[in-house]
Amino acid sequence: MAGNPKILVVEDDPKFQKLMRFTLEKHGFEVTVCNDGMEAKDAVDHNPVELIISDYVMPNMDGLLLLKTLREEGRDTPFILMTAHGSIDSTMEAIKLGTVEYLTKPFDPEEIVLAAQKALNMGHMTRELSELREAVRAKYSFDNLIGQSPSMQEAYRNIHKASQTTANVLISGETGTGKELAARAIHYNGLSKKGPFVPMICSAFSGGTLESELFGHVKGAFTDAYRDHKGRFELADQGTLFLDEVGDVPLSTQVKLLRVLQEKRFERVGGQQTLHSDFRLIAAVNKDLKDLVRKCLFREDLFYRLSVINITMPPLRNHPEDIPALVKHFLQHYTRVNKKNIKTLSLEAMHVIQSHPWPGNVRQLENAIESAVAMCEGNMIKLADLQLELSKLPSETTPDSEDYQGSLPQVVASVERQMIQKALNQHEWVKARAAKALGISERVLSYKMGKYGLGKG
Amino acid sequence: MPETDENQGAEKIIVHVDSDLEDLLPGFLEDWKTEIESMREALERNDYETIRKLGHNMKGTGGSCGLEEITDIGRRLEEAAKAMAQEAIRINLDTLSSYLERIELVYE
User: Which domains are present in chain A?
Assistant: First the structure.
């Protein structure tokens, strides 16, 4: 709110009213005075204030009832209660209802100024916190998930379904496909959104450290344990724990993980006390977890426990039709962040982006656009602004003769095989579309696939 | 007037108060003097609620302005009114009246 902070004083003693108004106005506050709770309720309905300072005992509606009525209506205006009584019951009730301060009359007028400043600061912090929460929710809202392709639409449907339950979720996908973004979307739109989102990359920790990070440790549990340490399970209480690269958790820790998932109970490393945490688990993998199960590197029971809901984030090469929308989104975002005035991309730049293989998926595309926005000097991103290694672009491939060994027919066959493989991948093995992209007939494509032994999987 | 005569020559009570209150306190002292009369009239008609209320307000405002004595008298008046103790009310009104006649504020 602009200008001086607005305070409503609710007090039935005319001299105390004068004293409050005089003191608060002297410190730059804008003060309105009401004689009782009813009058105050009517006043805040018409003119919202940033702080209410109210006497307790008043005719018609007392201070506690005023506070109760406002809270029941969902108003969280900071409230200071003054009383000449100081009864324990009213103090407790006022505190439960969220009073910032409780002052017993008589008090030095400077005390009310300090209390008002503290209450206003708390009010600002509460407002900022709820605005930030709202901003985070907006950032990870379903509206920000981009992509009209069937594979992405299926992923969104599953993300939405997962957000409506508390079941464990397993998100699979190559690096850069947006697994954490999907996990955050589930959390911030889901049932645990008021709790914390606690991410952890399992592969970043070795065996012992991993357990200490997951379960916490007590002081003295090992040489460097100088103090008690809360683990991620504890931190994620009432919220969501996101375990990225869960396939890298060693077998010895997997059995402990299984117990926590079953019972929601665990002990800190070196500790005796059993702790309880009510968390929702989302795990992610960038490798084939079933394959690890087959190779006995991942416990089958844990796999089933983790994958109650399965979500697959497709690699960008499987949904290239989403590239223009993603480019537009990132372009708008980074233009705004960098305060630039870039409207579009040149056709040439767009063509190169669309035909790039993007092994690092959406994250790599985002980085490329961010970098191009930084490099761009005009209002259109040109090919030169893109920091892509052109030698890796299929359309620009001019292989060095040293790169290829063998005769000309052998090199031609090798390039032909690579191009066909890439086109098939890009078009989800729909031969008609791959053939069209390659500029050959479907019949020729089938023949060449047979010749090079190309088949799905 | 007899009250004035009684207080003539009585020792002044010097109270040091915050200079910020210079605009407010003279008016408050006058209000309390008027309230003594209101309470005496209330006592005549056994209206203890008016006395309790005014005593209660004095209790809150007095000390907040640096006048602890007003808070003490206010508290005693409130309690006496609750107990409908006529004599105690009279004594405390006299004490208040005397205090207000003798008080001399020093702003600092």
Answer: 6-135 (3.40.50.2300), 144-314 (3.40.50.300), 317-395 (1.10.8.60), 400-452 (1.10.10.60)
Cβ(A48)–Cβ(A8) under 8 Å? no
User: Which H or E run includes A241?
Assistant: strand A240-244
Q: What is the DSSP letter of A36?
A: S
> Looking at residues A265-273, what average pLDDT do you find?
89
> Closest chain A residue to B66 measured between Cα atoms?
A108
Residues 6+ away with beta carbon under 8 Å from A307: A168, A170, A289
Q: Given CA atoms B74, B75, B78, B84 in this order, what sign does their dihedral have?
A: negative
Contact with chain A for residue B69, Cβ under 8 A: no
What is the C-alpha separation between A193 and A166, in angstroms, rounded? 11
**How far is A51 from A74, CA to CA, in rounded Å?**
15
DSSP assignments along A333-398, one per residue: HHHHHTT----EE-HHHHHHHHHS--TTHHHHHHHHHHHHHHH--SSEE-GGG----GGG-GGG--
A84:B56 CB<8 A: yes
Strand bridging mode A216-217 / A229-230: antiparallel
The CA distances from residue B92 to A203, B28, B96, in Å, are 80, 18, 6
**A84 in reach of chain B (CB within 8 A):** yes
Given a cut of 60, is residue A65 above it in pLDDT? yes
Report the chain A residue with the minimal C-alpha distance to residue B57: A13
Cβ atoms within 10 A of the Cβ of A143, count?
Answer: 7
Cα separations (Å) of A70 from A42, A73, B94? 11, 5, 44
- Using CA atoms, how far residue A88 sits from A65, A102, A106, A264, B72, in Å, is 16, 11, 17, 38, 22
* A176 and A363 Cβ atoms separated by less than 8 Å: yes
Cβ contacts (< 8 Å) between B60 and chain A: which residues? 13, 16, 82, 84, 105-106
Handedness of CA A442, A444, A450, A455 (dihedral sign): negative
| Closest partner CB to A84 (pick from B59, B65, B68) | B59
pLDDT value of position A389:
63
Omega before A106 within 30 of 0, i.e. cis: yes
Q: Give residue A139's Cα distance to chain centre.
A: 7
Contacts of A22 in chain B (CB under 8 A): 21, 23-24
Gap between the Cα atoms of A156 and A163, Å rounded? 10
Paired strand residues for A284: A171
Residue contact B23–A22, C-beta within 8 A = yes
Please give the share of chain A, as a percent, with pLDDT higher than 70.
93
Interchain pair B64, A107: CB under 8 A: yes
A73-83 pLDDT tens trace = 888 899 999 98
pLDDT at A86: 57
Length of chain B measured in residues: 108
Cβ(A9)–Cβ(A40) under 8 Å? no
* Contact between A243 and A284 (Cβ < 8 Å): yes
Give dist(CA A162, CA A144) in Å, integer: 17
